[in-house]
Amino acid sequence: MEKKYWKSLEEQANLPVTNPGQKDVDSSRSLLDLIDEEIDSKPSSRRNFLKFCGFSFATAAIATSCQNPINSAIPYLNKPEEVTPGMANHYASTYFDGQDYNGILVKVRDGRPIKIEGNELSSISKGATSARVQGSVLSLYDDGARIKAPLMGGKATTWNALDAEVSTKLAGAATSGKGIALVTSTIISPSTLSVINDFKVKFPTAKHVTYDAVSSSALLEANNLTFNSQTIPDYHFDKADVIVSFGADFLGTWLMPVEFTRRFAASRKLNAEKRSISQLTVFESGMSLTGANADYRFPIKPSQQANVILSLYNEIAKASGGTTYNAPTSAVNITKLAEKLLAAKGKSIVVCGINDTAIQVVVNAINQMLQNYGSTIDFSASLNIRKGIDQEMATFVKELNEGKTGVVIFYNVNPVYNYTDSKLLIEGLKKADISVSLANAKDETSAICTVVAPDHHFLESWNDAEPKEGLFSLQQPTIRNIYWTRQAQDSLLKWSGSTIQYNAYLKQYWQQNFSNKQTEYTSLDFWNYTLQKGVFELPNPVNQPAFINQALANAAQKCGTVVTSETELAFYETIALGNGLHTNNPWMMEMPDPISKVCWDNFAAISPKMAEKLGVVTGDLLKFGNDFELVAFIQPGQADGTISIAYGYGRTKAGKVADGVGVNVFPFMKMEGNNRKESLIVPSVVKTGNKYNLASTQMYHSMEGRDIVRETTLAEWNEKPNAGNEMHEEAEKHNISLYKEIVFDGHHWGMSIDLNACTGCSACVIGCQAENNVPVVGKEQVATTRIMHWIRMDRYYSEDSANPSVYFQPVMCQQCDNAPCENVCPVSATNHSSEGLNQMAYNRCIGTKYCINNCPYKVRRFNWFRYSTNDAFDYNMNSDMGRMVLNPDVTVRERGVVEKCSFCVQRIQEKKLQAKLENRPLADGEIQTACMQACPAGAIIFGDTNDKQGKLMDLFADQRNYNLIEEIHTLPSVGYLTKVRNREKESNKEA
Amino acid sequence: MYKAEVRGPLILGNKDYGQITRDIIAPIDNKTPGWWKVAMAVSITLASIGIFSLYYTVRYGLGTWAVNNSVAWGWEIINFVWWIGIGHAGTAFSIFLLILRQKWRTSINRAAEAMTVFAVMCAAIFPAIHMGRVWLAFYIFPYPNTRGPLWVNFNSPLFWDFIAISAYLLISASFWYFGMVPDFASIRDKAKTKAKKAIYGMLAFGWTGSTKEWLRYEGLSYVLGGIAAVLVVSVHSIVSTDFASSVIPGWHTTLFPPYFVVGAIFSGFAMVMTLMIVIRKYYHLEDYVTDSHLNAIAKILVFISLIMGTAYTTEVFMAWYSGNPYEMFTFFHNRLTGEYSFMFWAMVICNAVIPQVMWSKKVRSNITALFIISLIINLGMWYERFNIVVTSLSKDYLPSSWTSYSPTWVEIGIYIGTIGIFTIGVLFFFRFIPMIAISEVKSVLKPTEISEKH
Questions:
Q1: Which residue positions in chain A have pLDDT lower than 70?
Q2: Which of A96, A214, A266, B108 is deepest in the core (most CB within 10 A)?
Q3: Do B130 and A970 touch (CB under 8 A)?
Q4: Which residues in chain B are contacts of A796 at CB distance < 8 A?
Q5: How far apart are alpha carbons B371 and B348 in whole angstroms?
C-alpha cells in the first residue's frame, strides 16, 4: 500500500476540511452547467466532449483574438447639473489675441472645448469668425508648445518660489529707483488695465509699454494730429458707395477684418430690391485679399503710395476749394477716381494701411473733405484694438540698454521674435535684474527670460474686453487649466501684494463700473446676464472731434518728397498666420493662402515681369543683400519692382510645427521717423541658383475659358438679371433623363454660395477642419496634391498677369443628385440618402478611389496614410492631448478610405432630433453647416430645397444662380450666384 | 486529312509522330539549360523587388505611391490594363483560330495560352493592391453575408471587372489545362523516373487515349472555346467601361470597348510573337514555329495596327467634332501638345506607325526586326494606357485641381515585380510543360508522312 501523507488531522482522519472564514460555496454549480445543467448525471459522451471542445475553442478564440483597447470611461460621482454626456454646451466668451477681437461661443463636449463659433449677439462678429479664431481652439491642446509649469532659469519651479523671486526683484527695483517695465500687447480689457494700474500704484517706477508687432501707430498719431484724439475710428464699409484703399487689407488683416468683411459683403450683395453695390479701388504692392476683391486695382510700389495719395488729395482739394500742395506726377491717373469720390461725398471711405504718419494725415484730410467723418467713419465707437505706439517700444529698448530698467515683464508679446531690433533688446535684457515672461506657450521671448510665469490659455481664463467704445465683452473659462499655469492678471495682482483673485476682481470691477451704466438689471443679474450673453453694448454718445488742419502742410510736403527706388520690399501679414502668433498651430500653418495657395512657407512674391528680367521662376532661391535667402514665387498682380514677403515665419522657439519654417522678416523693418516702416529698399536681389520646393494646393490659375466662375458687371446685370449666366438656361433645358426622376419628399438639402459676397478669407476652410476632424498632412503631402480639406477655396486669375482680375470660389462636395461617384463604387460605400445627401460609409469603403476619379469637382479626399496616431504625421492627431479637440460626433477616418464634405450631416441630425423632441417642424436657417456659420460675409446659405418659402429657394430662384459644370447633368445641390463687379468694362484697368 | 499544298507544310523537317513527341518533350527531359537558370535568377530578383514593394505598400499605405487626390489612378491601373491586354492573346489565338479552323495555330496556341494565364495573374495583382484596404477586398464578392446582408453595387464597372476577370482567368486556365491533358499523358508514358511518372500521371487525369476520350476531349474544347470566345470580347470591353462609363473627358466615349479589345489583341499578339521567337531560338523548334507562322502573326499585327491608328484618329476627331471644350482640351492640350505630348506621340509612333514597316515581306521574314517590333508594340501599348489613365485625370474639369503625376519607386517596383512573376511563370512553362500542343500538331502533319510510331 502507498504511504499516506497528510497535512492536517482532519485530512488524516478523512474528515471534511473546514475553514472558519470561508462560507460554503455551492460547489454543485460549475462552469460546465453553462453547457448542460445535467452534465454531472450524464455519462461522458462524444456529444459532451464536442460541447467542451466547442466551448473551450470559442473561449480561447475570444480571449486571444479580440484585443480590446483599454479605454476608461469613468462616470461622474456627482454629475454637474449642466453636463449631459453626448450633449454639447455652448459658453459665450471672448477671443482677443492682442490683435483681433471676436465675440465667440465655445462649444464644450464632455468638459472639453472643441469648437469656436462667433457670438451672434456681438455686433462685431454677428456669429461669424475668422480662420484664426476658428483655429485658436487647437492651441489650447498644443502639448508640445504650452508651458506646463512656472520656470526659473529654464527649470520648473513652484509658484511660491517664483512669486518670492519676482517680489524680491520688484521690491529691489522699487527701492533702488530702477524702472519696472510692463511690456504688453494692446490690452482691450478694462479690468486688466485696472490691474495694471494697481500694479503701477504699488510700484511707482513701473511703466506700461504697449507694443504691437504690426502696429497702427501712424494712424493713431495722425488722428491725434488732425483730431486731437489718439484713437482709431470705426469704418462703415456698408454705408459707403465708393471705397478706396491704399494698402489697407481690411478684408484680410487690417484692424477688424471680420466686421469689415461683413460690412463690405453687405454692400456687395444684390437682389431684386438692392440693385447697386459699392465700388472698391485698391492701390497696393502685393496682391492682398482686399486687392483681389477690388473692382479696380493698381499695383504700385510702396514708395509711390504717398504721391498717389497726395495727388488724389490735390484733385479733391481743387474741386472742394481746399489748399493744394506741390506733388510730383502721380504714378496712376486718379482724376476719374477723384470724380467718383466727389460724387459720393459722405458716402465714401478712403483707408490707408501704411504706417506713416504724414500719409495718414493726408488721408484724413481727404476723408474730411469728402465729409466722411460722422457718416461712414465714426469716432464715437472708436476701436481699442490697436494702441501700440512704435516710439514707446523704441524708448523702452533704449532705456533698457542704458541699464535704467530693473524688472521687465512681458505679457502677450514676443518682441525677441518680432521687434525690429531684437538684438538690441536681447542685449538690454541682460542688463535687467530680472525678465519675466507671462507667455502661455513657448516663444522666443520666454526662452530668454529668466522667469516664466505661464499664463492660462484664453479658453481657461477669465477676462473682459472693450474692443470698441461702449461694447463690452466677457471671457470665461471653458475648461479648468490643463497645466500648472496661472492667469497673468492673477500673477500681477499677487505681485502687487493684492490678495484678491482675478475672477473676483473682475466681477467687482464690473459691478462698480458697468452695472450702474444700465438700468435693466440689478447688479448681480447684470453680471449673470452678460456672462450668459457674452456681450453688453451701451449706446455711444455722438462724438465727432473737429478736424485740425495744422499738420497737413508739413505732411503734404513730406508726401511730395518721397523717393522711389528700383526694387522695394514690402512686408505683409498673411490671413492664416498674421504676425506669427499662431504659427505653431498646424491648422493655420496648413491653410493655403487665399491668394498664393501656398502653405507651410513664406516666399518672396515677385511680379512676372521682374521674374523674367531676373531670369527667375517659382522655386528659385533669391539672396537679398547679405541678409537672407528666400524662395521666389511669381505672383500675378505684384507691382513691378516690388517683392512682398510675409511676416510670421522663421520662428525658432515656438514648437515643432513652426520652428525653422520660412524666414523671419521682422528684423528688416526699419524705424523711420516715429514709425516702423513695413517696406524697405533692398540693395540687391540675386538668384543663387539653388532650388526650393513650395507646397501649393493649386498649380493652374486660369479658368481656360470655362464658365466656372460666371461674372458680369453691375450695369449689365441691371439690364439683364441673368447676365453672364445665360448658359444656365441652356443647361437647364438639357436636364432630361431617360431615368425616372428621384423624388425627395422629406427634406432635400442644398446650399447657395454668393460669389459676390465671398471674399476668399478661408474661415470656412478652417471652420470645416475643426468641425469634421480633418487631419493635417504636412508640407510634403500637400505638395503631392493630398491636402485633406473638405472645402477648397479655388482662386482663378483672368486677363494679364501684370494685374489680373481675381476670382474666389469655395468648392465642397456638390451633393449631386445624379452623382457620378455613386454608381462607380463597387461596394456602394458612397450612396445617396433620402434627403439628397451624397453620403460616405467609411466602414464599407475599400478604397478603390474610383469615386475620386469620377468626381468632376475633385472634392473627394483619400486617406493615403494613417493620419492619426502616426509619428510620421506628428501634428495634433498624434498625441492624446491634441486629439482632445476632435469632434466626437464625427468619425476619425482610417487609412485607405475616401472622405469628403458631408454637409455637416451630424449637425443636420442634431437639429432634426431637437425639432422632433420639441414636436415642431424644422425652421429655415436652423441648421448651419460649419462653413456657413464661420463665414463672415454671409456668402453661404444652407437650407432645404423642399421648403419653398425658405431663403435657399429664394436664392436658387435668382437668375444669377447656376451649378458648377452643370452641363454634364450631375444635378448638384450647391448653387453659385454669379460674381457682379462694379466696373464699366470687364477689366480692372481704368479708374 | 489536311493537305497543305498551297500554303506549304505547317511542320517542317519530315517528322514522324514519334519524332514530334520526342522533339517537344525534349526540354522537359533534358538537363536544365544554363541560360534558363540565369533567366530564373533574374526573374526571381525582379519578383522580389515587386514583393518588397507590395509589402511596403500594404505596410505604410497607398501614400507611398505618387497617386493623389486628383490623379487617383496611376501606374497600377496602367499596368493592370496592360497585363490584361497581353493576357488576351492566348485565348484569342486559340479560340478564334480554332473556330475559324486555322490549323497553323496549333504550334503556337499552347504558349499563347500559358502566357495568358500568367499575364492575367499579374494583372489581377493590381486591382487588389490598389485598394486602400486590401484586407477588405472580399467586400467586392457578391454573396449573402452576415453584414446586413450588404450587396455589392451591381452598377459599378469595377464590380463587372471583378466578375469578368475572374471568369476569364478561370476559363483560360481550364482551357489551357484541358488542352494539355493528352500531352501530359505522353510525358507520363515516356517518363523515366518514378516521380515524374507520378506527377505527370496525376496531371494527365488517367488519360488513356481511347476514342471516347478523344471525342469528349474535342467536345470540351469546343464548349470551352465557345465560352472563352465571348469572354475575350467581354473582358476587355468591361475593362474599358471602367473608363467609358465615367464622366471624365477622354474617358467618356463609346469607342472604348472595341478600341480596348482590339488594342488588347494587338499587345497580346505582339507578346506571343516575342515569346515564340524566344522559344524557337532557345529550344530549336524552328520546324514547328516556322517563318510562315511569324509571317502570319506579323500580317495580323499590321492589320490591327491600322485599326489602332483609326481609333486614335477617331478619338481626336470626335473630341473636335463634339465641340466639347473639355474633350478638346484633353486631346489637343494635354495629349497632342502639352505636358504629356511625349506619351501621346510615343503611342502613335509605336502602335500605328512603326508596325507599318511589316507591309514589307523582307521585314516580315527578318526575325530580329520582328522581335524588336513586337517589343516596341508592347511599349506603345503601355504608353497608350498611360495616355488614357493619367492625362485625362491630371487635367479634367476644374483647373484648380489639375496636377501632374509621375510614379514613385514603389510603383515602379511593383511593375518590375509583375514582370518578374510573369517570366518566372513562363520559365516554368518552358521547363515543365510541353510548349507546343503535341496532339494537335500531329493532326496537321501531312497525311503522307504518317508513321505508326507515336
A1: 1-2, 10-12, 14-44, 63-69, 985-991
A2: B108
A3: no
A4: 399-400
A5: 19
Chain A residues closer than 8 Å to B131 by CB? 846-848, 896
**Residue A25 confidence (pLDDT):** 47
pLDDT for position B1: 43
User: With contact defined as beta carbons under 8 Å apart, do A626 and A552 qualify?
Assistant: no
pLDDT at residue A1, as a whole number: 55
CB A133 within 8 A of CB A107: no
pLDDT at A438: 94
Residue A983 has a pLDDT of 87
Q: Residue B368 to residues B272, B281, B351: CA-CA distances in angstroms?
A: 15, 11, 18
Q: Which of B134, B153, B401 is closest, CB to CB, to A858? A: B401
Using only the alpha carbons of chain B, give its radius of gyration: 23
| Alpha-carbon distances, residue A987 vs A48, A298, A340, A712, A797 (angstroms) | 90, 12, 18, 11, 12
Per-residue confidence (pLDDT) for residue A42, from 0 to 100: 65
- Specify whether the backbone of A615 is left (phi greater than 0), alpha (psi in -120 to 50) or beta: left
- Residue B22's Cβ-count burial label (10 Å; 0-12, 13-18, 19+) is middle
| Residue B110 banded pLDDT, cuts 50, 70, 90 | confident
Nine cell digits for residue B248: 471624365
Of all residues in chain A, the one with the smallest CA distance to B135 is A846
Q: Which domains does chain A have, with CATH numbers?
A: 217-269+276-383 (3.40.228.10), 565-696 (2.40.40.20), 711-732+743-981 (3.30.70.20)
Distance from CA of A829 to the nearest CA of B (A): 9
Residue B4 pLDDT: 47
ipTM: 0.91
* Per-residue burial over A688-717, b = 16 or more CB atoms within 10 Å of its CB, e = otherwise: eeeebebbbbbeebebbeebbbbbbbbebb
DSSP string, A689-755: EEE---EES----B-TT--SS-EEEHHHHHH-TTTT-HHHHHHHHT---SSPPPP--S--EEEEEET
pLDDT for the residue A43 = 66
Q: Give the nearest partner residue to B69 out of A705, A862, A964, using CB atoms.
A: A862
pLDDT at position B244 = 93
pLDDT score at A991: 47
Q: Do A857 and B67 touch (CB under 8 A)?
A: no
Residues of A in contact with B242 (CB under 8 A): 850
Closest CA relative to residue A104, chosen from A65, A133, A62: A133
First to last CA, chain B: 18
Sorted by where each starts, the structural domains of chain B and their CATH numbers stand as: 17-449 (1.20.1630.10)
Q: Structure pTM?
A: 0.89
